[in-house]
Design a protein that fits this description.
Length: about 230
């Protein structure tokens, strides 16, 4: 599931309450909009006609914002209860969003079951390492890394609903934090990260074999420091 599919499925829920219960979060929806915006910029550089996307993006953003309160909490109607997500987007805008999803298909990482298991093992191993080195890490870094590990675990648990877009985002953020944590780890404890590095390498190799067109993206997610 790419960013546009993720957004489309949110607006396909019966209500914002149902979407929230299913695992759709305001920050992820905003991130999906940003991802579509970046893709639109790239399509324009490639010479594609993007006028429709340019005009729809502000309406998509407004639709997401209207579906939530200013604090990012689910919106309720005082009489009828939770507001339907479809009330905030026209059929025409949903159709264009689906077209964006089709275009994004060719450049979106897809996590196979084996790769998701590798990510779960990576999270488990990283948690083990973190427990062993947390006391020697800079203030706040251990807490931040722990938070991203939980975020990645949640993305794995809710994969059936939130799909590749949310997991891709979580893993990318985790990878950056792991890079920092490894640099901050004393030399005599560097070997504790070996299993995490091996799992990152397996993920990168998997993408190169299964989706050669996405190998560069995978290499960016799992660089040499984690990749081995």
């Amino acid at each position: 599931m790419n960013a546009a599919e993720f957004l489309y499925d949110f607006f396909d829920e019966e209500s914002v309450y149902d979407a929230d219960q299913a695992g759709y979060r305001f920050p992820d929806l905003v991130a999906a909009l940003d991802e579509i915006g970046k893709a639109t910029d790239q399509w324009e550089r490639e010479g594609r006609r993007v006028k429709g996307f340019r005009s729809s993006l502000p309406r998509w953003r407004k639709s997401v914002t209207m579906a939530f309160t200013d604090t990012g909490e689910i919106r309720w109607d005082e009489i009828s209860g939770p507001v339907g997500t479809s009330d905030f987007m026209s059929d025409a805008d949903k159709d264009l969003l689906m077209y964006a999803a089709e275009l994004l298909d060719s450049c979106t990482l897809r996590f196979t079951e084996e790769q998701r298991n590798n990510v779960r093992n990576l999270v488990s191993e990283a948690n083990t390492v973190l427990r062993g080195i947390a006391d020697g890490m800079p203030d706040g870094l251990a807490l931040y890394l722990s938070r991203l590990l939980r975020e990645t675990e949640t993305a794995l648990d809710e994969y059936a609903i939130t799909g590749d877009f949310v997991l891709d985002r979580a893993v990318s953020r985790l990878r950056e934090a792991l890079d920092i944590a490894m640099v901050q780890t004393p030399e005599d404890k560097q070997s504790m990260w070996d299993k995490v590095k091996d799992l990152g390498k397996q993920l990168a190799i998997g993408y190169m074999i299964e989706a050669p067109a996405l190998a560069l993206t995978a290499a960016q997610m799992f660089p040499p420091q984690i990749g081995g």
